[in-house]
User: Which sequence fits this backbone?
């Protein structure tokens, strides 16, 4: 199979065009989700959706090895389900050749890095050349810092990194955020870059999975930037409740400005129920799902609710710690978006809404808490009726991010990818 990582991984799509048919595979940590899409002008139509459970192939960076056989079987089941569904909505069964992959965030590290440049001629307007120099400098320092600071995450994995995504997250002139600094005057010019890296060994395993499926990789992504782009209003905090972690993103202008992970997710609630009721994990998962959709009798609902509420208190306090670190002096944003399969658990939204944020963080009013709905992501049309399921949020956001990357301007990404990478990165030097 062709090695497409260096060509497509960071947002450079095939000639800025999307194939007529393609698939999205969200690998998750406990479940694979698949979407089959068709291009409709500048939009993308979902014509098939599927999902398949599997035993966790990773739980974090320290064991970030893809179980090729089991993961391939899970992807195949989810993809076949999605492809078979296309017969209901299309003249023929749609079987895509190209796939967009979304790897679990728990096997990635997402970091922002800001460089401030003291301008020698503050009376002169900022030029594009000057901006490019600051962006490249920020990226060089960011990649060096990543290579030096996260090696301990990769124990036993060969310590080689792959640059998965990179973006300019923000510009500032004299401390004021601006979208386009060129032509402005000021003494200090700052650029913030956002990078996502992953173990090269894990990506090679995923590449083997795709080869088994007989597909070609169109793009590899994480959910960090995809969910930020999909947020309503493109501002605020995004809280993604996944299987093994909860990821928190500070979003400005549709871009991730800062990110953090909390090691608590939906699987922890399942484990708590298994311990409380003395159940095997599979039965506890079924109990959790039945509780989530209101299929338990009143007595059992109360017992399960007590166990869930106890862990919810731990979860929201851990989220608060992450939020405080991300927000800093800026204070809590006005809007909080909840997403991910774990967000359907009763009480998640309520505990976020009722939490005393104002007494703990710098904010003057309670945040407005919304659930991110996959069926409302711009540019993605639902032809199946399946996108009411929040478990498809990440896959749908990745589809929207692919569409945005192919049709939207990405002027600064060229600078970021061209910066020479330290030896800790696969293939070391700059991107070709």
Assistant:
């Amino acid at each position: 199979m062709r090695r497409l990582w260096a060509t497509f991984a960071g947002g450079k799509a095939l000639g800025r065009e999307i194939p007529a048919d393609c698939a999205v595979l969200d690998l998750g940590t406990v479940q694979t989700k698949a979407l089959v899409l068709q291009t409709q002008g500048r939009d993308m139509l979902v014509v098939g959706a599927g999902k398949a459970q599997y035993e966790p192939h990773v739980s974090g960076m320290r064991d970030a090895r893809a179980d090729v056989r089991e993961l391939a079987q899970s992807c195949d089941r989810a993809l076949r389900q999605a492809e078979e569904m296309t017969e209901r909505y299309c003249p023929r069964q749609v079987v895509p050749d190209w796939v967009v992959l979304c790897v679990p965030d728990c096997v990635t590290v997402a970091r922002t890095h800001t460089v401030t440049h003291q301008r020698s001629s503050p009376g002169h307007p900022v030029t594009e050349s000057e901006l490019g120099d600051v962006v490249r400098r920020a990226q060089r320092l960011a990649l060096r810092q990543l290579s030096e600071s996260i090696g301990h995450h990769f124990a036993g994995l060969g310590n080689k990194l792959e640059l998965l995504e990179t973006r300019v997250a923000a510009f500032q002139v004299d401390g004021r955020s601006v979208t386009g600094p060129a032509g402005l005057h000021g003494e200090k010019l700052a650029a913030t870059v956002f990078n996502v890296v992953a173990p090269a060994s894990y990506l090679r395993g995923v590449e083997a999975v795709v080869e088994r499926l007989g597909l070609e990789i169109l793009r590899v992504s994480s959910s960090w930037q995809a969910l930020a782009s999909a947020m309503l209003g493109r501002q605020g905090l995004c809280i993604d409740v996944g299987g093994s972690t909860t990821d928190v993103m500070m979003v400005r202008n549709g871009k991730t400005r800062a990110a953090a992970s909390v090691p608590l997710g939906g699987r922890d609630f399942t484990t708590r129920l298994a311990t409380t009721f003395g159940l095997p994990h599979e039965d506890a998962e079924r109990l959790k799902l039945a509780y989530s959709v209101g299929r338990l009798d009143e007595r059992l609902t109360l017992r399960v609710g007590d166990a869930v509420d106890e862990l919810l208190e731990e979860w929201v306090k851990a989220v608060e710690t992450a939020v405080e670190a991300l927000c800093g002096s800026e204070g809590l944003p006005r809007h909080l978006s909840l997403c991910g399969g774990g967000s359907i658990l009763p009480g998640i939204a309520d505990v976020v809404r009722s939490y005393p944020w104002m007494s703990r963080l710098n904010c003057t009013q309670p945040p407005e808490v919304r659930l991110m709905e996959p069926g409302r992501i711009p540019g993605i049309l639902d032809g199946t009726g399946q996108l009411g399921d929040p478990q498809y949020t990440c896959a749908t956001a990745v589809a929207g991010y692919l569409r945005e990357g192919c049709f939207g301007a990405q002027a600064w990404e060229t600078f970021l990818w061209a910066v020479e990478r330290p030896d800790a990165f696969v293939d070391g030097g700059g991107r070709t």
Remarks:
- The longest helix spans residues 298-327.
- The longest strand covers residues 161-173.
- The mean pLDDT is 86.
